[in-house]
Amino acid sequence: MPILQMVSLAAEEGAGAGPFLVGGGIMVLLVLVLLGILAFGKGREHS
Length: 47
Known about the structure:
The structure is a single chain. The chain is mainly alpha-helical. The chain has 2 helices and no strands. The chain has helices spanning 3-13, 19-41. The protein starts with a helix and ends in a 6-residue tail after the last helix.
């Protein structure tokens, strides 16, 4: 099935992941990346 047909079907169905679910998942991912960066830089000397 071509991607354009799948996009139009997804738009018509409305039974996908809600915008709050997608936004919440992305926010969790970004917070985890931020915590990883802070943990990585914690033991390093300042230049």
